[in-house]
Design a protein that fits this description.
CATH superfamily of the largest domain: Tetracycline Repressor, domain 2
Shape: globular
Distance between the termini: 75 Å
CATH architecture of the largest domain: Orthogonal Bundle
CATH topology of the largest domain: Tetracycline Repressor, domain 2
Structural class: mainly alpha
CATH class of the largest domain: Mainly Alpha
Length: 218
């Protein structure tokens, strides 16, 4: 009986060059995974490529074959976490037919509390003036994806509002809340999270009211 040739799936390489590219991406993902684990164990500004290389079980030189510098690797880890957050936000947006800004705010707070390394990197990238134009552009593109989804979301419920300005203020306010309340004196992690959620609920209510007020006054 003649053997049947298996049709390759989209995830399988069909030639040697594709195989090499998949192997390269797998190695890059391995290094990013290692970086994310290290960021959860050490202060962000203390992490070195050597720490990440040790976690991945390879040499620092091997990492530099895929990432030209430490900031590039940090940016990749940051963007990956942002993408996870955006997926959660879109799922929340699409699961509600009405405006659900409080639910979205809770998703964001829980994400940054569970992936605190992303919050630390966010603060770092916001104030770091030494980023190369390439890294700054990739980080900005990641941030713009979230901003764009939020602008569209606000516009869906009130097409007359300045959705872009309102979205920018919401993001800035939420960044401030996350950074200032993450180390509340005398409170454990559970209490800090609850404090953030309480503040987040107030913040979401303010912006939701702003959308409704502007809609009612048109």
């Amino acid at each position: 009986m003649p053997s049947r040739t298996k049709t390759p799936t989209k995830s399988e390489p069909t030639n040697f060059l594709m195989l090499k590219e998949m192997e390269r991406e797998n190695r890059k993902n391995l290094f990013i995974n290692a970086a994310e684990r290290v960021f959860t164990e050490m202060p962000f500004d203390k992490v070195t490529i050597r720490n990440i290389a040790k976690q991945a079980g390879i040499t620092a030189t091997a990492i530099y074959r895929y990432f030209p510098d430490k900031q590039t690797l940090y940016a990749e880890a940051y963007i990956r976490s942002n993408n996870r957050l955006l997926g959660k936000i879109l799922e929340t947006m699409n699961s509600h037919s009405s405006l659900c800004l409080e639910e979205i705010t809770m998703v964001i707070i829980e994400h940054f509390m569970s992936e605190e390394q992303n919050l630390k990197m966010r603060a770092h990238f916001l104030i770091d003036d030494s980023l190369s134009p390439e890294i700054a552009q990739s980080i900005n593109e990641s941030s713009r994806r979230f901003l764009s989804e939020l602008v569209n979301y606000f516009g869906r419920f009130n097409p007359d509002v300045d959705a872009r300005m309102l979205s920018r203020i919401y993001i800035a306010s939420l960044n401030g809340l996350l950074i200032t309340l993450r180390k509340y004196p005398g409170k454990n992690n559970k209490e800090v999270l609850q404090n953030m959620k309480t503040a987040g609920s107030v913040l979401a209510s303010m912006f939701q009211d702003q959308l409704n007020i502007q809609k009612d006054t048109k």
